[in-house]
Structure formats: structure tokens, C-alpha cells
Write a structure and sequence with these properties.
374 residues; mainly beta; Thrombin, subunit H; Pdz3 Domain; six-stranded antiparallel β-barrel; 6 helices; 10% helix; disordered N terminus
Length: 374
């Protein structure tokens, strides 16, 4: 079982990546029906996603097998073999069928390190899969199989129009093969949750995810999160594990995944911009002391520049060692992981405005982003 460390609202919590060591899980969709009696429901358009109601409402809720049928046969178990041995398993779903091939979306950590991928369909047929593209930061991967036995692909929806409290459900493979075809259901508990995870030797990285209380367990990673209409709105990726915590799972919004799917499908490396600095959090007092850098104790958030790469955009813009970066494009920077998240919303060649503090004075610099390998 692979673990990641999550830093969220000041707490250090263990995130179990729900993809390792499980079997096939299928999520069935359940419908919420609102029988309105002089009731006006206004769907909010703000980022909270909270529905505003003018009157009391009566809810008549029934399960809808037809929604389950829209995804069940499109959901698969993915087994990761390394050196001839089964090392882990997770979930995935077919999002496209094109000629002789069909294409599966799943998590990077489900297929990471594999030299063989076996895909188990809902009818228990097994076929070979090929990883076309995968990215650790996105925690996304595309797997290709023959289309001969694939009869259904998922309907892609949107998470942007979902509201907190909406019914959601998942399909995947919790625990192991014997529980394939399991369905769990719950509510959309939150949107735009910023969760910090450790990305191997690359350091911390922030993911913007959907929070759900539908049960997800090891083996669920890569499976679809769906709305009550059976449309995919997310890809299950993480959960929080603590004795006092229950029912806090996270899914990658489907819009984010689909933004990169063509590049992953083509086997292209995701190109990320480079600002040209190494950095530490302002809270890393001991390490800053080792670098001989002192930060004003009144500065509570931001990152400290410990080195500037020669010829980089940062050097050309006049950023120096010891500067404390506090904002990018006007958005406050809380940590090094958060800075990378903000930075990676931009493209190579973009010019961004960086706000920093030097010797107690606030300054700004326009930095042109270059390719990371440069």
C-alpha cells in the first residue's frame, strides 16, 4: 500500500492512495429526486457550490439502476505486474473507443513502475493493457487495450455544476479481486480542497480536489466518481487515514483530467514552466539558518529564495538569494508546494508577476517562464 503525507488546514495526516493492493470496485449511481411544492431551488454559481432554497423541500430518494448501467461495464480492474509478480491493483474506466483500440483513464500510482498491465472487465474477461502516458504530478495515466471486448465507455460530465450535498457514487475495486463490482455512495462534501501530497523525491505538491464521503478503499484509485445521472465528474485518488477520521476521500475533477488526456494518450511528457529558483518555506527556520539566511519573524507565509539559476527568468528579472516570495499574479503564496501549484497553472513563455520582500520592502518583478529542463 502506497502512502502519501497530506498537510491540510495545519494538520499532518496520512493519505492512503486508494489504488494499491485492491481488486475491482464498481460504483452504482443513486438518484435524488426533489418533489417540489411551491419550492424554488436556485443553483448557486459561486465556488462553494451550495444550493440555496427559498422554502422547505420534501425529498423522495430512490436508487436508479439505469445510472449504474451507464458506467458499470465501462469500469475495470487494473493489475500492475513488475518482474513477473503482481505488485498492486486499482481501478479505471474506459473513456473512449476508437477502431481497434479502447482507452482507459486511471491514476499514475496505479500503473507506476509496471512492466505488464492486466485489465479485468466487468464480465471477468482479462486483456492486456499498455500504458501510453503517465504523469506523477497529475496522478493520471492513460492505458490502451484492444477494443474487441469493450462494449461500453463512460459518459463524461462536469464537476463544475455539481453542488455540495449532491449525491455521488463510485465504481472501483476495493481490497481485492473478490470485491470487484462493489458500489459505494455518498455526498459531495466539498469542492476546491487544496491537499498537499509528497511526490517522491520531487518534494511536496498541491492537488485541487473534490472531497467526498462515499467509501473508497485501497483498490479504488483510478475509478470514476459519478453524479446521480451516471456521468463521470472525477477520478478517485486519495483518502485521509487517522483513527479519528472517517469518510474523507478525494477525487481529481474530471475537467482537470480531460485537459491533459490528449497529451497522455500521445505519450507526450507534460511540459511545465520553470521560474529558476530553489526555495524553502519561511517556516523552515533551521534549514534557513544553515543557508545563512535570516527572515523577518513578522513574515509568516511565503517562500525564501535560496539560489537563483544563472540565465533563468528569475535572474533576468532581478530576483536574488534571500528574497521572500509572497505572491504570484496577486495570489498569496503559502508554501513551496503552493508556489509550484500556482506556477504550473501557467505555460512556458508566459510572463508572470512575482511579489516579494527584500530588506523589509515589498517589490514586484515580471518573470518570463522557460522550460523546466532549461
Amino acid at each position: 500500500m502506497r502512502e502519501k503525507i497530506v498537510k491540510w488546514i495545519g494538520l499532518l495526516l496520512v493519505v492512503v492512495v486508494a489504488g494499491s493492493g485492491g481488486g475491482l470496485v464498481t460504483y452504482h449511481f443513486l438518484e435524488e429526486r426533489l418533489e417540489e411544492s411551491n419550492t424554488i431551488i436556485e443553483k448557486s454559481t459561486n465556488t462553494t457550490g451550495v444550493v440555496k432554497c427559498s422554502n422547505d423541500i420534501t425529498i423522495d430518494e430512490t436508487g436508479i439502476a439505469t445510472s449504474v448501467g451507464k458506467i458499470y461495464d465501462a469500469t475495470v480492474m487494473i493489475q500492475n505486474y513488475q518482474g513477473g509478480r503482481l505488485t498492486s491493483s486499482g481501478s479505471g474506466f474506459y473513456y473512449k473507443k476508437d477502431g481497434d483500440y479502447a482507452y482507459i483513464l486511471t491514476n499514475h500510482h496505479v500503473v507506476d513502475g509496471s512492466d505488464r498491465i492486466v485489465v479485468t472487465l466487468s464480465n471477468d474477461d482479462q486483456i492486456e493493457g499498455e500504458v501510453l502516458g503517465s504523469d506523477e504530478y497529475l496522478d493520471l495515466a492513460v492505458v490502451r487495450t484492444s477494443s474487441e471486448k469493450v462494449n461500453l465507455v463512460a459518459t463524461i460530465g462536469t464537476s463544475e455544476t455539481t453542488n455540495i450535498g449532491d449525491t455521488v457514487f463510485t465504481v472501483g475495486t476495493p481490497i481485492g479481486y473478490e470485491y470487484r463490482g462493489s458500489v459505494t455512495r455518498g455526498s459531495l462534501s466539498g469542492k476546491n480542497r487544496m491537499v498537499t501530497v509528497s511526490v517522491n523525491a520531487s518534494g511536496d505538491w498541491v492537488m485541487n480536489v473534490l472531497q467526498i464521503d462515499a467509501a473508497i478503499n485501497p483498490g479504488n484509485s483510478g475509478g470514476p466518481l459519478l453524479n446521480a445521472n451516471g456521468e463521470v465528474i472525477g477520478i478517485n485518488s486519495l483518502k485521509l487515514v487517522e483513527d479519528q477520521i472517517e469518510g474523507m476521500g478525494f477525487a481529481i475533477p474530471i475537467e482537470y483530467a480531460m485537459k491533459y488526456v490528449d497529451e497522455l494518450e500521445a505519450g507526450k511528457e507534460i511540459e511545465r514552466p520553470f521560474v529558476g529558483i530553489t526555495m524553502l518555506n519561511v517556516t523552515d527556520s533551521y534549514r534557513l539558518y544553515q543557508y545563512g539566511i535570516r527572515v523577518d519573524p513578522d513574515i509568516e507565509e511565503g517562500v525564501v529564495v535560496t539560489e537563483v539559476s544563472e540565465g533563468s527568468g528569475a535572474e533576468k528579472a532581478g530576483i536574488r538569494r534571500g528574497d521572500v516570495i509572497i505572491a504570484i499574479e496577486g495570489e498569496s503564496v503559502s508554501s513551496a508546494a503552493h508556489l509550484k501549484y500556482l506556477l504550473y497553472q501557467h505555460e512556458v513563455g508566459d510572463e508572470i508577476k512575482i511579489t516579494y520582500i527584500r530588506n523589509g520592502n515589498q517589490k514586484t518583478a515580471d518573470v518570463t517562464l522557460t522550460k523546466l529542463e532549461d
